[in-house]
Amino acid sequence: MPNSLSVAVIDYDGGNLASAARAAERAAELSGLTASVEITSNPDAVLKADRIILPGQGAFADCARGLAAQPGLKQALLKAVSQGTPFLGICVGMQLMAEQGLEHGITPGFGWIKGEVAPLDAPGLRLPQMGWNSLSFTRPHPLTEHLGNDPHGYFVHSYALRNTSADTLLATTEYGGAVPAIVCHKNMAGTQFHVEKSQTVGLRIIANFLSWQPESPRWA
């Protein structure tokens, strides 16, 4: 790991950029890491970054269009991640990792993980799911270490990943059934909940992401 990490928070006119950047800075401080966090839409900055964070809120289709509208940004993101740069998607940023989204029509995702983003199937429960909910881990992973007993994340969403591979899941939450909460494949990870709003648990996950070495044979 370099002495100082460069962290690119992708700016595509989406939401939560400033709070995601502040959370990354705070997580680095708490872990004793030196990190330079930049909110950017510059493709060169994305290609040079040591870590990439893609926040997202709102509709899948809107976020996909916003990302594609920034000249060269999506291409730089896809290239950097394909070359091994660790990636963290937050909320819709996580959903974009899937094959497609079904919100306001069918919109292609990045195709990094199997599955599609569809309306939450939660009969009798309020939509969107909004508030704190517990996390149930499916397997150990560096991203979910040191989260304490009964960790919770802060969720705000009406759509969720479905039909994904079991080996993609790191954690689920319960809302009318098991809902994917944390996913990971190779150097690509995502949280359905807002880590930047999830206080101690969220900061720990971001800190774990900043120190994560996905090229390790154990986690490849």
Give the helix/strand class.
alpha/beta
Strand content: 25-35%
Specify the biggest β-sheet: 8 strands, mixed
Order of helices and strands: EHEHEHHEHEEEEEEEEEEH
Number of helical stretches of at least 4 residues: 6
Distance between the termini: 17 Å
What does this structure look like?
The protein is built from 6 helices and 14 strands. The protein is of the alpha/beta class. The strands form 3 sheets. Strands 2-1-3-4-14-13-12-9 form an 8-stranded mixed sheet. It has a 4-stranded mixed sheet with strand order 6-5-7-11, with helices on one face. A two-stranded antiparallel ribbon has the order 8-10. Strand 13 and strand 14 form a beta hairpin. Helix 1 packs across helix 6.
Briefly characterize the structure.
The chain has 220 residues and is α/β, with parallel strands linked by helices. The protein is built from six helices and 14 strands.
What is this structure's SSE topology?
Elements: E1 5-10, H1 17-31, E2 35-40, H2 43-48, E3 51-54, H3 60-69, H4 73-82, E4 87-90, H5 92-95, E5 100-101, E6 107-108, E7 116-119, E8 129-134, E9 136-137, E10 152-157, E11 159-162, E12 169-174, E13 178-185, E14 188-191, H6 199-211
Helix pairs in contact: 1-6
Structure keywords:
single chain, 220 residues, alpha/beta, eight-stranded mixed beta sheet, four-stranded mixed beta sheet, 6 helices, 26% helix
